[in-house]
Write a structure and sequence with these properties.
By secondary structure, the chain is of the alpha/beta class. The protein has two domains: 182 residues, Rossmann fold (3-Layer(aba) Sandwich); 111 residues, Methyltransferase, Methionine Synthase (B12-binding Domains), Chain A, domain 1, CATH 1.10.1240. Helix content is 53%, strand content 9%. Strand 1, helix 2 and strand 2 form a beta-alpha-beta unit.
Amino acid sequence: MAPSLAQVARPQLFICTLLSSESLVDHLSQILEGDRYRLLHTNPDDFLTIVKQGKHHIDCLILEETASLPQRIGQLHRDAILLPAVIVTTLPEQNYQAEDITPAGQKLDSCYHVAEVRWADPTGPQILEAIEQSISQFLQLSKTCPIPDPKVAKVFASEDFAVTLASQQQRLSQKLKERLGYLGVYYKRNPRQFFHQLSEDEKQEYLLSLKQTYQKIILNYFRAGHTSVNQQIDEFVATLFFSDISILKILEIHMELMSSLTKQLKLEGRDEAILLDYRLTLIDIMAHLCEMYRRSIPKAEKNRSQ
């Protein structure tokens, strides 16, 4: 019997699966247990009904790549239902590396939409990363995204679908913000914009911008009545968070600036001991950044790392 929507609407990330392997069902149930996830396993007969009823509540689909999957996805296409999705690639003829978590449209052809993620290790814990990536990519999915099945392309080209997709993305983004606090921000991070992914020229330009911003914060930190410094710190920390930059880089920026200011004070014949107070600025920023990471890391991930 199909579960009711009363069972679906819970204040957690709602994950709906369609899996043929009992061992995979058991494995996911163990990994995704806890208060952060609501996991619902469906069978082929109930799947479409559940997804239709719960499309405004479901946060991610986990679908095992079986011979019948194209038929199920075709049904979703015909009903213009797009949701974040992880495709579990377990077919023996697929020659994937076990550690691969692959954004569709890069190395592999998509079967649902270009924002789907393929998870090629049914026995590993990377499903948490795959879920995060699928939601992140879905939030950035364009209304003009190509659909694998040309027969239903017209459905997705309609104005109604554009409104539906925008509504789904807004719903999911708002849901993450309301239910999970900073965790909603975590899903909006784009790995392609991480510091280590930038070119050398881009890295230098980015570091220069950070140094200039940090210098402004330092100069304003102890100024009376300078109320904008808190906003400057928040924006600076958000920039660090979204770029996934190493804390060591921030320490280097601080030490370089302190060294420069020390030389300037010596030239002016002033005591550089006052610069010790600016350690509070660094501590303030680090505390903000650590709190942002602490509140953004999924609880299940925390438990696994302890």
